[in-house]
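Let's study today's protein:

:::
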Amino acid sequence: MDLLRIQEALRRQKLDAWLFFDHQERDPLAYRVLGFHPSRHVTRRWYYLIPADGEPAGLVHRIEAGMLDSLPGDKRKYSSWQEQHSQLSRLLSGHTRVAMQYSPLCAVPYVSMVDAGTVELVRSLEVEVFSSAELIQEFEACLTEAQFATHLEAGKRVDQVCAGAFQLIREKLSSGVTEMVVHDWVREQFRTAGMTTDSGPIVGVNAHAGNPHYEPSAETDTPIRPGDFVLLDMWAKLDQADAVYYDITWVGFCGDAPERVRQVFETVRDARDRAVNAVAEAVAAKREIRGFEVDDAARSHICAKGFGDHFVHRTGHSIGTEVHGTGANMDNLETHDERRILPGALFSVEPGIYLSDFGVRSEVDVFVTATSAGTTGAVQRDLVRI
C-alpha cells in the first residue's frame, strides 16, 4: 500500500478519507489497493479508513481481531451490531466526505462493490459517500513500465497469431475449414507462445460476425467458404504474474468484398481512428478527456453514416491484468463514463456495426502517457483479402 500517494490523491479530490469495507472477500479491489491478503477466510465485516491527513485506522470483529494486522494504524474491535455501529461512528468522526467502492446508479459496475445497506449505514452517521471510481483507476488501472512491457510483448505475439489465423483460412479454404478449426488453432498457438486467456477467441462467419459476443461451439460451428465474411477477435496475455492483456479484432473477406461490405468496414475504421485521434489530440494539448467523449467521437461518425442503430455497445473498455479492467471505459451508451483518462491508462477502441448478414468491428489498444497517446500494435487499414 502506497499510503502517501493515496493521501495525496484524496487531498487532490477534496475528500476527507477513503473507507474500505469487506465481508467474505467480496471486494477484491480493496485487497489489491491495500496490498494485503487475508491469512484466512473473512467471515466477519471489517473496515479500514485512510484519512487524507493522519494515521489510518481499522475496525475488526473480535473473533478475527488480527485480520488487518499487516496494515498500519490502530484497530478498533466490536462484537455486537450495536458496538459495530458505535465504533464505526467513532472511526468516521470528523470526516464528512468519504470515498467508498460505490457508484451512483451503478454507473460503473466494476467499482460498485459495497452493498446498499452498508452505504446506508455510513450515511446514517452523517457522512456523505462518494464514488471511489477515480481513485480506483489511479491505483488499479494505470500501468507500471513493467506491466506495459508485458502488454507490448503480448501484442507482438497476438498480432502474429492473428495474421497466421487468416493465413490458415486462406490455405484451407478450398479443402475445408470451420470456425472451430480456427478457434482451436488460435488457442494452441497462444499456449505454445507462452500466453494465456480467459476465453475466446471469437471466430465469426457472416451472420455470426453480426453477434458482438458470438463464440463458436460444436453446436454452432460453421464452414468458411469463398464469398464469406470473417471476423477474428482475440485477446491474451503472457503467462506470468501481473501480465497485461492485448485485445484486438480484425476482419476479412474470402475473395473480392462487395461494395456494401467495404462501405461498412470503412465507416467502422474511420470511427475508430476518430476516437483514437480525439484522445491523442487532447493529451498533446494537455486537455482532460473523459471516457464518454471518446465514445462520442466514434459514435457520432457511425450515426452520421446512418448506422447508429447498429452500433450496440460502448466504444471501448479498460484493459489490465483482466481483459476488462477497472479504469475508464470509452462509453456514453451503456453508461455515461465521466472518469478521466489518466497517464498510464490502457484501453480498447472497438466500434462496430452489426447487421443481419455480417458485422464489422475494428479493435485496437491505446496507451496514454503524460504527453502522448497512441495504438500499441498493428492497425488494420484495409479488409484482409483471404
